[in-house]
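Consider this record:
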Amino acid sequence: MTRQPAVAGRFYPGNSKALQQEITNFIQPYSSVQKKKGMAVVSPHAGYIYSGAVTAETLSHIEIPETVVILGLNHHGRGAPVALSRDTWHMVVADTKVDETFCDALLQNSKTIVVDEAAHQYEHSVEVQIPFLLELQPKLQIVPIVLSHLSYADCKQFASELATTIQGFPHEVLIVASSDMSHYESRTVATRKDRLALEMIEQLNPEGLYTTVHSNRISMCGVIPVTIALLTVSELGATRAELIRYTDSGDVSGDTGQVVGYAGMVLS
């Protein structure tokens, strides 16, 4: 089976040549950046006009392995709370296959995740990451997962299962946690709130992030993917989180009265 694009022509160009040119334009300014190994990244998932530059700069800082676990938010609420896709993803620039070996191992190790294509059918948070990853790693194989709202205990459970799978996998694995930051706040308010969340990520503090976002009503849509990424890499021995870039939609639209925040981070 093949998963068709949900937001081609809206979040990014629906034409292969135009999309390839746009991705090249985003990545080219960072072609001389010295790449390093990373365990996970936080990357936004808005339309490329708003957040593409943040994704390009963030991913250009690290070596992209062939296997990438993409943790996205289930915006639509369809399907299972922790849903894996095993379909081939038909992207505008190329078809992208899942890493069947990793998926088999994850399903064997996890009591949490299920295969549920319906959860992925209309969801963009995984999809928009793939063209950038493909450009930087032509041999890319993905592990697409979308997550609904989970308790912190459930986040810990799945993160432990994911970490066990990565530890037992014979090849390098990168986690991409897909998330935008505050939504439709003034720039002043969004920057203040987002700083609280980003400080928790920089401290590699998953429980602090989960609690801070909920207690301060920060509309960071991908708090669950990022919390799980933090829990996973902490179990795998991560020691550092680096903010690559923070911006908001006002830089493009000129409207700073209601912005959406975007952050790119590398966890290593």
